[in-house]
Amino acid sequence: MTTSVTVRVPAKVNVQLAVGPARPDGFHDLANVFLAVGLYDEVTVTETDAFSLTCTGPGSDQVPLDRTNLAARAALALAERHGLGDPKVRIHIAKDIPVAGGMAGGSADAAGALVACDALWGTNASRAELLDICAELGSDVPFSLVGGAALGTGRGERLEPLDVGGEFWWVFAVADGGLSTPAVYREFDRLSPDAPAPVASPALLDALRTGDVAALAASVTNDLQPAALSLFPSLKSTLDAGRGAGALAALVSGSGPTTAFLAADEAAARAVASALVASGTCRAARVACSPAQGAVLISG
Ligand SMILES: C[C@](O)(CO)[C@H](O)COP(=O)(O)OP(=O)(O)OC[C@H]1O[C@@H](n2ccc(N)nc2=O)[C@H](O)[C@@H]1O
Ligand SMILES: Nc1ncnc2c1ncn2[C@@H]1O[C@H](COP(=O)(O)OP(=O)(O)OP(=O)(O)O)[C@@H](O)[C@H]1O
């Protein structure tokens, strides 16, 4: 019998993040074009006699180890739906996705824990049930499960898969510090009181479909960028440093403060990463390729 299961889950970048006005429930309607990128967390769940959670890797000291952790909440939600009582499971998160960086690290761990517990417990949840639990856990969580590329509407949880016609190379500059997603949305409301209804850009969807890096660079947008820059002004020098080093496009990743740079190819991405580190405007620079697969079982 399987006693331990490991699932690998990718980070995301939003190549378009169009944000509408705040809804009565406090969320914002989005046209959210997600692209999964090849930076991964690994979530391992092991049968044991009491619930526990551990986390290792960069930034793991900022990750809660109690039941507020999104991975723990995912395990609890699946156990509750299937009448399994308190889950007797040890969850270990090997983190490589920047924490509180706007790359959906917590969401990735939730999707990973869900898929891992489903395999460990033999609950055999359908894709629809898994997606339902993901949407309850957070707006980004369904995308962490499916990966690839998708248009997210509603608060970002309603997904339509998108075709991607080639590879795109990225550099992610990790900032010193984090940004709270609700705080960035609040700042967006302050800066954009008359935001129009969000619409996906046909030019951007075309660029993804054809794998045209120059066209993608010309069409990436993030409506949360002014809000993130307002709360974290030093990100402007990081964006400038990446552009100066030859990035085809530079933008804040999601709610930030990680910044994302699109490069012509892998060699160009590595050159931009070195220049970003040398500029002293970020803590670290990571190179990654997209699209990446969603949550996949890698052992167990
Ligand atoms: C910025 C993005 O990462 C872009 O993909 C997401 O929109 C954020 O998704 P997330 O972190 O999964 O967010 P959730 O856990 O669902 O919500 C956290 C908080 O973010 C704000 N929020 C989130 C999503 C959304 N469409 N509108 C919002 O206003 C709300 O204040 C909410 O209370
Ligand atoms: N498994 C987890 N990994 C990281 N943070 C977690 C986790 N579970 C809960 N959190 C909490 O969530 C906060 C946001 O972390 P996360 O790394 O998910 O941010 P993010 O990448 O900006 O999210 P998003 O891009 O979805 O808005 C952290 O500061 C932490 O307190």
Automatic annotation (TrEMBL):
This protein's pathway: Isoprenoid biosynthesis; isopentenyl diphosphate biosynthesis via DXP pathway; isopentenyl diphosphate from 1-deoxy-D-xylulose 5-phosphate: step 3/6
Matching InterPro entries: GHMP_kinase_C_dom, GHMP_kinase_C_sf, GHMP_kinase_N_dom, IspE, Ribosomal_Su5_D2-typ_SF, Ribsml_uS5_D2-typ_fold_subgr
Record-annotated GHMP kinase N-terminal domain positions: 69-148
Keywords: ATP-binding, Isoprene biosynthesis, Kinase, Nucleotide-binding, Transferase
Gene Ontology annotations of biological process type: isopentenyl diphosphate biosynthetic process, methylerythritol 4-phosphate pathway; terpenoid biosynthetic process
Catalysed reactions, as listed in the record: 4-CDP-2-C-methyl-D-erythritol + ATP = 4-CDP-2-C-methyl-D-erythritol 2-phosphate + ADP + H(+)
GO MF assignments: 4-(cytidine 5'-diphospho)-2-C-methyl-D-erythritol kinase activity; ATP binding
Gene3D superfamilies from the UniProt entry: 3.30.230.10, GHMP kinase, C-terminal domain
EC number: 2.7.1.148
Domain GHMP kinase C-terminal: 205-277
Keyword set includes Transferase: yes
Active site: K12, D140
Domain of life according to the entry: Bacteria
The keyword Transferase appears for this protein: yes
UniProt-annotated binding residues for ATP: P98, V99, A100, G101, G102, M103, A104, G105, G106, S107, A108
Protein family per UniProt: Belongs to the GHMP kinase family. IspE subfamily.
HAMAP family associated with the record: IspE
Function: Catalyzes the phosphorylation of the position 2 hydroxy group of 4-diphosphocytidyl-2C-methyl-D-erythritol.
The protein, known as: 4-diphosphocytidyl-2-C-methyl-D-erythritol kinase
Gene from which this protein is expressed: ispE
